[in-house]
Amino acid sequence: MRVRDFFGRKMYNLQQVTVPILGSYTSENIFKMLVKVTDALNDPWNAKLIGMSSEEESTMKDRHRHSDLVTRMVATDINPTIRVWCASHHVNLVVSLAAKCVTEES
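The chain above was modelled as a monomer; its predicted structure follows.
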């Protein structure tokens, strides 16, 4: 997770905040944990959220499109939020699937 925040007049990039997820890796559990972490880091974070990115992996999605992780995060935001589909993660998922198919065929 990358968080960009402003303190005073300076922008800080906080890279790779590692958060343990207790229980199953569902979008609901991940959402609850992200809200706890972002509340602790910067309250009110939902007034400052400007964008969300996801690779659309199954743990980021739910059975119902309206309840995936990014949709939940964007829905809690006070301001308009941009959804960004991470191309590099999409490519990684496609290449991983292709490599798995090749190794299964061999």
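Helices lie at 27-41, 69-76, 87-105.
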